[in-house]
Specification:
By secondary structure, the protein is α/β, with parallel strands linked by helices. It has one domain (about 10-250): 3-Layer(aba) Sandwich (Aminopeptidase), CATH 3.40.630.40. It is about 35% helix and about 15% strand. A seven-stranded mixed sheet has the order 1-3-2-6-11-9-10, with helices on both faces. A two-stranded antiparallel sheet has the order 4-5. The protein has a two-stranded antiparallel ribbon with strand order 7-8. Helix 4 packs across helix 6 (about 230-250).
Length: about 260
């Protein structure tokens, strides 16, 4: 987008040679100036509802360690959640967990459509192009891995899981990742926690992963484990090894080009 303040997508690591593309939809908490902070105070703009805390640094570290391009969201998920279609009620939430979002209240269809066109559309067009380019470079079907973080306590309920590996319909890569992580014994890992496809969180996986014949995986890391840049980088080093094992062990997607 050429409009000032509406940088919807960022790309790094484009020289990566691995048959893999990384995605971090909720990397940023930036809000375009014209939206007047969506009426939020500093606490809300820094909270997990605005972005995935620690995920951007984690994703960049994985990009470096795995030699893969990374496509990241450039705006807060509260402006528009790039892991949701326009039909999803929470793609532009008027309330997220315990935070009201005044700037998203009572938006008409034209305003919702404008957010969709300025954020969702360039993000997903860019991601599709990066995936196709990487497949041409590698001469084979790539894998898709999205990187997220989650709050340790949600709506007053503590979460014991530390790393979740999620899938859309094909569980092969996620299951291989859980097995690899559990074998290392460092963190409490689980399949489809703290969310699953039933919660509507696998839109990107379905669209750019399984929908294109690619193996796809979502990683969710509890954000108290990556609350600083140094901690995020260490987790990136750890997960790079887990992912490398999972990518090697999981069966290829049906119909994927070798």
């Amino acid at each position: 987008m050429a409009d000032a303040g509406w940088t919807a997508v960022e790309i790094t690591g484009t020289a990566g040679a691995a048959p893999l593309v990384l995605v971090c939809e909720h990397a940023s908490r930036a809000i375009p100036p014209e939206l007047d902070d969506l009426g939020l105070d500093d606490e809300a703009r820094s909270a997990h509802v605005a972005w995935d805390i620690g995920a951007a640094v984690l994703a960049r570290r994985l990009s470096e360690r795995l030699d893969a391009p990374l496509v990241s969201g450039g705006l807060s998920r509260l402006v528009y959640d790039c892991n949701r279609p326009l039909s999803a009620p929470d793609c532009i939430p008027a309330r997220s967990e315990r935070y009201d979002v005044p700037g998203n209240r009572d938006l008409d269809e034209a305003a919702r459509r404008l957010r969709f066109e300025r954020v969702h559309e360039p993000f997903h067009a860019t991601l599709a192009d990066v995936c196709r380019t990487q497949e041409r470079r590698c001469g084979r079907t790539i894998d898709l891995v999205t990187v997220h973080s989650f709050t340790p306590v949600y709506l007053g309920v503590p979460r014991a899981v530390e790393i979740g590996f999620l899938h859309h319909e094909d569980a092969a890569l996620a299951s291989a990742a859980v097995a690899a992580e559990r074998a290392r014994g460092a963190y409490r890992a689980a399949l489809d926690e703290p969310y699953s496809a039933a919660d509507g969180v696998t839109y990107t996986l379905a669209r750019h992963g399984e929908g294109e014949g690619r193996r796809a995986l979502m990683i969710e890391v509890r954000n108290d484990l990556i609350a600083t840049d140094a901690a995020s980088a260490r987790m990136g080093d750890h997960l790079a090894r887990t992912l490398a094992r999972a990518l090697a062990d999981a069966p290829q997607a049906a119909g994927a080009a070798p």
